[in-house]
Specification:
By secondary structure, the chain is an all-alpha fold. The chain has two domains: about 55 residues; about 100 residues, Serine Threonine Protein Phosphatase 5, Tetratricopeptide repeat (Alpha Horseshoe), CATH 1.25.40.10. The protein is built from ten helices and no strands. The longest helix has 20 residues.
Length: about 180
């Protein structure tokens, strides 16, 4: 038994306390957080956003995550190349954006609507889609702005909006009512 205590004593004596230099620095902490964020983005299928973070990490990361960052960077790059979408028409892209909206992928739907509007600012259907998205996500001002623009570009959007269940959260807003029923004002 004395030998066991002696052995234990000697093994504990060999341990050295962790030095302050072994703790991650503020910069390393930030890079580790970027790594975790990039992993989360990749798991969510947001490969382009993850790729940007992994690209940065592949140049700046601490040794413990450097090689993994480079591997994940190549995975993201490969997925971005495979998933690059191309649409024959803005209407086709709109259909895709609506499918994202219906699936609850609001950020991706917003990206698609914004891309349509960047290419075709007069696309009434894209303004209508942005109005829907804004209404669903609780952004009343933005919803009203886009719906106003959609109706100005194509008055039939007014009739469609009157029966669209995605605008149910806007029904109590007097500005919304004025916009959809100008003849009663």
């Amino acid at each position: 038994m004395a030998r066991m205590q002696e052995a234990r004593g000697s093994s504990t004596a060999r341990r050295s306390p962790r030095s302050p230099a072994a703790k991650p620095s503020g910069e390393n902490q930030r890079l580790l957080q970027d790594y975790q964020n990039a992993l989360q983005l990749m798991q969510q299928g947001k490969f382009e956003k993850a790729r940007v973070l992994f690209d940065k990490l592949s140049r700046e990361a601490p040794p413990e995550i450097l090689e993994r960052s480079r591997v994940y960077l190549s995975v993201c790059a490969r997925n971005c190349a495979q998933s690059s979408l191309s649409f024959a028409t803005p209407e086709e892209q709109y259909d895709y954006a609506v499918s994202l909206l219906n699936a609850g992928s609001y950020e991706e739907a917003r990206d698609q609507f914004e891309a349509i509007l960047a290419a075709a600012p007069q696309a009434d259907f894209a303004h209508y889609g942005m109005a829907l998205l804004s209404s669903i996500t609780g952004q009343a001002e933005e919803a009203l702005d886009h719906l106003t623009r959609a109706i100005a570009l194509n008055p039939s959007n007014r009739i469609q909006a009157r029966s669209d269940p995605d605008f149910v959260d806007m029904a109590d807003d007097p500005r919304f009512t004025e916009l959809l029923y100008p003849e009663t004002g």
